[in-house]
Design brief:
60 residues, mainly alpha, 80% helix, Rab-GAP_TBC_sf
Amino acid sequence: TMIRIWDCFLLDGTKVLFRFALAILSIHEKEVLQRNDTISVIKILKASVRLTYDYEGLFN
């Protein structure tokens, strides 16, 4: 997945990073919205990024 992200980044530039960030946020939107503080949101996102292997979901 990371190699694919690098490929997109090298091809299209920094806008790809924003797209992937938005894709990750949209995938985990429910968990993020249930949190009340920033630290717990960061913990959720860190854990979810480590467990995100569905690169097709990120690219669509």
